[in-house]
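Data availability (excerpt). The following record was deposited with the supplementary files.
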Amino acid sequence: MAHFDSEQVGWRLLEPNSDAPRSYVARIVFDSAFQRAPVVHVGVSGFDIENSDAARLRVRVTHVDPAGFEVELETWLATRVWSVDVSWLAIGN
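Predicted structure:
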């Protein structure tokens, strides 16, 4: 599990009223490296969004390699995201 919030450097998910999507990217490092890039599944396990906003949140896995991967959190329009919790599972050898 990983927790991301507005305290992270580069967090742009609190800037409302932008027509362009706003995103935050973080690197997840595996405890032990795989021999090859594994298949990674990620899911949202919690989030804190401003209570007057629509819950617009997209989560993607990118740049998977044997040592880890990047997770990208994205929102758009007036949605203000304070934090996101994600759970992930990496399958490989």
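Summary of structural features: The beta strands are 2-5, 18-29, 39-49, 58-65, 68-77, 81-91.
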